[in-house]
Design a protein that fits this description.
This protein has 14 helices and 9 strands. The protein is of the alpha/beta class. Helix 4 packs across helix 5 and helix 12 runs antiparallel to helix 13. The protein is globular.
């Protein structure tokens, strides 16, 4: 028996847009589909060409696209996350202070909660810019040490730690990077670590630094995270969707993708990757588990992990 509340669930506007775009294309209409995860342009399958600063496609688009168009895209992503049961999200915000302002303006029209990790507008250290970013954001999130002059990262990290803000870093994604240099920065979060060795992961686990894995984004670039090593080394894992240019920000779909890609993790471990563990890693008020559970929650199928009902 299914409760009558199921009938109250509204259709996803984003999915309706995608369906309409496909219908028009089938009718021969020239359509540029900008719904989530559907970029109507060829995205490079080389990580550096696609997303690496300062010359990757992502950064070129951010520099040349009108701010109003970017804001529309941000709003679409926020609406999509709301439709797909997200309550909190952590965003690596490009574009310096203007990028933070665009996101915050869009957040004013939603009920979503955010953790904003800012990034300097260019790969340079400007002490005034960093101070402003840390005033308006929850921390700093940088691309890999390979993209920066290491002494500049050290200055940014010193300021971030002094402000008691979060410092997160993409690491060892396309190729292995020096784990000692990474750990010397004392990051609160590491993203990817797909090319890390077992010894690297042991060091990360010893330092109790969580790793955010992004299976669908990695799959796009023909990369598979070292799931067995991550499990063997008892690394603390979070699950992320990475870049919305490549994959929709739907954490439940990300979890389902991971479930089909590997059998290394139990359902409880998968669920912890998107609930308890990220809340703890990001210092959020934790109600999982607890007596004062939020009133809004999602019911998932016990095998497929498909959402059945939002209450």
């Amino acid at each position: 028996m299914i409760a009558n509340r199921v009938n109250e669930i509204a259709a996803s506007e984003t999915m309706m847009i995608s369906a309409e775009a496909k219908k028009l294309k089938a009718e021969g209409v020239n359509v540029i589909n900008l719904s989530m995860g559907e970029p109507d342009f060829n995205t490079p399958h080389n990580i550096k060409e696609a997303v690496a600063p300062p010359n990757g496609l992502k950064h070129h688009l951010l520099e040349t696209t009108p701010k109003k168009t970017i804001q529309t895209g941000i709003k679409q992503a926020l609406d999509y996350m709301t439709e797909h049961h997200t309550q909190w999200f952590c965003d690596f915000r490009e574009g310096g202070l203007p990028g933070i302002q665009l996101l915050k303006q869009s957040l004013n029209t939603t009920n979503l909660n955010s953790v904003i990790l800012a990034r300097p507008k260019n790969n340079t250290y400007n002490p005034n810019e960093i101070q402003k970013l840390l005033t308006y954001a929850d921390g700093i999130g940088l691309s890999s040490i390979s993209d920066w002059d290491y002494p500049l990262i050290q200055k940014i990290v010193q300021t971030t730690h002094a402000k008691n803000k979060i410092f997160a870093l993409h690491a060892s994604e396309a190729h292995r990077e020096n784990i000692d240099l990474i750990l010397d920065l004392k990051p609160h979060l590491l993203i990817h670590m797909t090319q890390a060795t077992k010894n690297d992961l042991i060091h990360v686990a010893d330092e109790q630094i969580p790793i955010v894995i992004c299976p669908q984004s990695n799959h796009y670039f023909n990369i598979t995270p070292p799931y067995k090593l991550l499990k063997e080394t008892h690394t603390t894992l979070l699950l992320g969707t990475d870049n919305a240019m490549l994959t929709p920000p739907n954490i439940l779909k990300e979890m389902q993708f991971l479930q089909h890609q590997t059998t290394q993790f139990t359902q409880e471990e998968l669920l912890n990757m998107i609930t308890y563990t990220p809340r703890k890693a990001l210092n959020l008020d934790d109600h999982i588990p607890g007596l004062n559970l939020p009133r809004s929650f999602v019911v998932l199928h016990h095998k497929s992990l498909e959402p059945l009902l939002k209450i």
